[in-house]
Amino acid sequence: MHSSITMKVTLRAYLLFTATCSSARAFYNPHSPSSPSTFLNMSTTSPSTNLSQAKQLISKAISIGAPAYNAGDINKCATVYQDTAKEITSLGIPSALQSELLAEIDNNETSNDNAKAWALRRIFDSIVDYTLPLTPSPEPTIPSVTLEPFTQTQLPNEPLGVMDNVMGGISRGSWISKANTFFGETSLANNGGFASLRWRFPQKQNWSYAKGIYIKGLRHSKPMEHTFRIILKDDNCERVRLANYKVVFANPDQVQDQPLLIPFTEFDQMEQMGNSLVGSPSFNPMVVTEIGIMAIKPTVVGEFQLEFEEWGLYV
Ligand SMILES: *[C@@H]1O[C@H](CO)[C@@H](O)[C@H](O)[C@H]1NC(C)=O
Ligand SMILES: *[C@@H]1O[C@H](CO)[C@@H](O)[C@H](O)[C@H]1NC(C)=O
Ligand SMILES: *[C@@H]1O[C@H](CO)[C@@H](O)[C@H](O)[C@H]1NC(C)=O
Ligand SMILES: *[C@@H]1O[C@H](CO)[C@@H](O)[C@H](O)[C@H]1NC(C)=O
What we know:
Keywords: Signal. It is a single chain. By secondary structure, this protein is an alpha+beta fold. It folds into two domains: about 1-130, no CATH class; about 145-315, Jelly Rolls. The chain has seven helices and 15 strands. The longest helix has 20 residues, at about 50-70. The protein starts with a helix and ends with a strand.
């Protein structure tokens, strides 16, 4: 679901024909007095997710539903999926997926079994694809880390925007440098659905002395629903077109006093347009060429905003 020919062509065209960050209208003004009420809405409850159990139930349902469907018993398939969907809603999965699932369970307009089976299958697939984000720990579990913020000379001031938006895709993302704010809108139109910013280092970075990346004072839109990705590229990625490493992160509890720590060891799977490159090496912190931030479907659909006080390396 993540990749398609269209998106690949779009991205290639984008990279070839434009090198400037796309302009997007300002949905949020981080300095406007009205923004904190919608944006800094503190949440104290964690999502009590049991994602692995949901994934197990889905796998079981598909093992029954798919053969039934292929044998022509579409009603059985739809029934198994519907029953499983109801069972999953009691587990507490991430809220965006939960509301999608509840809506489809109650959607009596999809009255025929075939449409119902496919609608539920699509939601099941997005649950299976969902990765739990790394989140800041509310307590200082690692008191001994040293934070080294990125310096002005290290990180170029203006990132490159990489969107799905040249050949019909309409997702947008912009960066406000002085406020460390990434905002925009992802759209599913034309099979798109992501917006990202990339900082290319003027010089390859040797980060082997550090443990990972930190982000301090992280805040973002729809805390319980939106997740974002941090992107890293090393020398090996430069040899494989559109390859990079990504880690999913979020701040559902809007923890402010502890930084989010993202160890380099989490960047263990090289990918290309959302597909894992099997047998590829792990991220090599000795030769880092690029860092980025991404908002992408299915967790971010529509307007989004992410901001932080500071980021850098932790040692
Ligand atoms: C947070 O959001 C809820 C509903 O989403 C709203 O009722 C509440 O007033 C908000 N709180 C603040 C501090 O804006
Ligand atoms: C999730 O499901 C597993 C397996 O059914 C169970 O052992 C575990 O306690 C559940 N965790 C939560 C947080 O509900
Ligand atoms: C759809 O049908 C179910 C029973 O199959 C019922 O419980 C539900 O209320 C119906 N929803 C709507 C919106 O009519
Ligand atoms: C990177 O730095 C480490 C020491 O921190 C050093 O041992 C290594 O040789 C350096 N690698 C490169 C490619 O410069």
